[in-house]
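[Solved] Which block belongs to which protein?

Original post:
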Amino acid sequence: MSGEAVRAATLDGSGKDASRRDIRRRLAITLGPLLVSLVLAGCVLLVLGVDPLAYYGFVLDRGLLSPLGVQQTLTRMAPLLFIAAGLIVAFRAGMWNLGGDGQFLLGAVTAAASAPLLVQALPHWLALLVAFLIATSVAMLWSLVPALLRAYQGVNEIITTLMMSFLGVSLANVLVKLLFLDPATTVPQTRTLAVPDRLPRLFETTITSGLVFGLAAIVIVHFVMTRTAFGLKLRTVGANPRAAIHAGLNVPLLTVAVFAISAGLIGIGGAVDIIGIQGNVRADWNPAYGLAVIPVVFLARMNGLAAIAFVFLLSVLSIGGESAARRLGVPQHFTMVLVAIVLITLAIAEYLDHRFNQARKV
């Protein structure tokens, strides 16, 4: 074998070894925080006087092992996938959309208010399509304030999106109690979309077809952000605005586009949850899916395909956690505590990995 061939083989081998090490490192800083979080959450349960193994056993049985539980888990995934897709657009573009809960609720409320009226005047498929478009448009409009402030004034979008989320949640509740109130009920809620008028079910199960749309959305987002020129432009704007300007990109317009696309997808998630599952929105309803999906997206390293698996895990924890809470007397929101612990351990893992890489370079 010639010297050139030997060097080529050596470089190829070292490249493969480096790739394997990188994969192992990514798995460690992704799965490690998850396992640590389960242990820490188990310690919290012990302090509360609850057997962690029993809790996790109920979670697995209700969210993953029983046929009805699997159907509910897959149904819960539908809106979460749209939220994950919207967050991936923003985070991959280097921008923080933390206003997901407000965008989700406004999309849900407008879809709940419009769909029952539209199905009486339009063909079923067209009525649902228009309801989805209304929800998407409202969520996109709600993102304009932080988008324009970031694009033209350089205002930090973390503050503005959180502020708009708080206002959006409050506005959604006001709309339900006043403007969109169903006069036929004593409970403050919107009109109810009849079950036959909702999104069709899959294979004679309780799984909404919104799951298919959600999977399609996140796969398309992953492809656009990683394989297209438009996705490259969005990533460039977030990573280095000055370089984007020198490259001739319209940075303000692309910034607004990032927020609009992100919020629109999250708004569709709200519409899917109502038109496919709930049928109406009650006052003060806020599942806080937006904040719950953020650590999922980071665990997936903003990879759309990996996010599908982590969204499934979150759905299992959510559905199973509700059942375990009822049986063991654990607070209903303990799943959110687990998600918060995951977010903290993930941040620590990222910090330690960054320090390790810096030390290795020195």
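(Second protein starts here: sequence line, then its structure tokens.)
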Amino acid sequence: MPPANPYNKYIKQYQTSNITTATPEKLMILLFDGAIQFLLKAKTCIEENNYKERSENIDGARKIIRELMRTIDLENGNDVSKQLFRLYNRMAMNLIKANVQKNTEMLDAVIEDLTNIRWGFQKAIEIQSGVTTVEDAMKEQAANEAPQVHPALNQGDENAG
């Protein structure tokens, strides 16, 4: 077993501080990032035939998606709320299938969905805080047919809180 990282204690303290001081908007971004990270790790586990960690990572992402579902107010929400709820539900079900089938393509599809939703939330936060405009966000979306997974994980977060 490799030696423990001597900085783990400080990393945990930083992560805890980052979460406990985050705004609700920033917490949403952190949830998306966490789910995406879990799924990226699950893909690696499938490639390495590490079935235990594959299941744990997929389950972690599924739990985050279920938590995102709980944040939607279906009683007072509009059609967008209901569509988002259905999309989250479909992603959660696809994660169960992907786990059983050891299917990285299904994981990629969920990662893409999460990345796109995350991008939308990030842009909404930036628009609300005055960092960007609706017009600029629409131009960016048109220029980048779909947001990229890896660069999106840590870009623009400083504007979220």
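Accepted answer:
You had them paired correctly. Confirming on the second one: The CA atoms of residues 69 and 85 lie 6 Å apart.
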